[in-house]
Task: structure prediction
Amino acid sequence: MMRIAVTGAFGKAGRAVVADLLGHGYDVAPTDVVGPPGAEAGLGADLLLADLTDYGQALEALAGADAVVHLGNVPAPGRTTGPATLAANTTVNGNVFLAAERLGLSRVVWASSETTLGLPFDVPPRYAPVDEAHFPHPTTTYALSKVLGEETARHVAEWSGIPFVGLRISNIHRPQDYAAVPGYWADPRSRRWNLWGYVDVRDVAQACRLGVETPTTGSQNVIVAAADTIMDTPSAVLLDQVFPGVGLTRDIGEFETLLAIGAARELLGYAPEHSWRDYVSPR
Result:
């Protein structure tokens, strides 16, 4: 049975990833810097408390694993000061990546971010749908930490031969979060900051598992978002209203996401299975 270490396992995405991997028959080794230790965390596998800014603890957290799904970062801008966010995420990512190299893991799947693409789009995107070629355009130290993480992953993958899969994850929603979605619709600018993108936490878990399972080489980075936007206004209309100078590079579906997920489909076979529309009716 393949053993997968999951960092950040007590977080919103981490809990879903652990549940999904366990449900697909994997042996899971969860770790986080917070949460009740052991079985008290309620994850279905004992939670190891570890501070991954310490390389020795990162080594111990990954020891015995075949692969790692690395989610353990400061999760967003504004949670700590800018320099602290940059320092913490850069240190943790470096420690986990180098521990994976030292231990000879077979795969590293890790959480990059949609913020690397230019969020919050105070400067409009160059085109839409925004795809992987819109990288790098960090506007915060959080986004910069993810850009540096992708560069670190590229080099460690070259040194070690370990495949790395970076997931540029959109704004994560759980089923209980969808009740708030109609509150966004009155003002199209309320969600302009990420081109009205989102992703269901269960689809994040799917993408992480596919990242472990799909044969890849080198360091690959792909956008992970829902198939639709979070608005009930057509996507082309939203773009014209809020970013009138930004052109579409191709025809899009009526409510299609403006964060292109074609690369994730092609590389991983990623196919979003969940939408806010399953829980809330459009106007």
